[in-house]
Design goal:
alpha+beta, three-stranded antiparallel sheet, nine-stranded mixed sheet, 385 residues, 13 helices, 18% strand
Length: 385
Amino acid sequence: MYCGAALPEGQAVAVEERSLPTDLDQLVRQAMTLGTTHRLESALRSHQPDLESNDATKHDEEAISEPEKTRTERLIEMQRACAEAVSADAAQDEETLFAAVAKLREELQLLGPLAQPSPDGAVAVDAGPVILLPKVRRPYALVMEGPGNIELHESIARALDIDGVTARMLALARQPRVVLRGEDRKRLEDMACGVREHLSLSATVIDADTLRSMGPASLLIGFGDGPTTHPIADWSVDFKVDGLTGEAMVEPPALIVPGEIVISQYREARQGGRLKHLREGRKQASSEKRLAIVDVHIPNKIVRILEQYTNLSDAPGSTDSFRQSLKSLLQNWSEQGILTLESRTCTASVDGGVSGGAEAAALRDTGWASWEEHSRSARALFMGE
């Protein structure tokens, strides 16, 4: 602190100049859009004096560690340790035997728990995330932006070599559509190139591996301390939200895909039909529910807002109604210039809506397969992933 006394002659007081981010206005807008200040705080911290940045660099360097071994690599290490133990035992080399067994125990402990057999004798295998997609026979699909302009139907018919009725349906569409499926990827890519050049519409070719490589979607739990997300392995089954913790969503949205998922429940129809195979094969709808859904696409992740699971009470512009809060959120993102598609309702379809396992036993039919293809195709189309 300066006491007011005269400073010695020639002694200068060093004034520390603090720089601010050049994109400060944009960061403030993003903070208002997401309802969180994580990205703004990170940018301000990066402009602190060198001492703080050096401490952060040191902390980052300390956090770097060797990549975790895969299960296959650990099993190979265990196999080598077993071979060394057998050889050491045959040669009566107690020191080598002890080291090999110690290595085996270490790898076995690091391997972690494995799947336990179920009561009926089958082994429950953790197959990783479940990403449902429509069951189709042709591996590749041409996806095109929905122009919402009927006047383009003749140009679309010529570019894709399709009939006029189909071309009119595609011209009227306001969301991305799967235009054609085929086995010749090169032919579909040539068509996509023609659509981009002659119609000035986005078009790309996708396959199941491309869509699944985007990874499982993460649930947006709520906005209490800023948007928080948690990955969900299987969206086709009911799951609990209580107790879920996750990581903060700090990246601004790049693409918004809104819509609705239809989940239908069926039961066996015990009446009707004189033939046994007709009586036993008949089912009738018992209930149906529609859940509002929004996929928020950010770099390297899909964040999903789902009715009955996401809490929007602390979201920007929220009200007592989930759907009204969601509408305000979508309007806010749209006003920020973020690409927001038209809403689409996905119902269960013959080519892929039925879930497997316990879901099939419960006679449950969902639109998850259609939704996953629609949302991920839009990401590939507009974000180039």
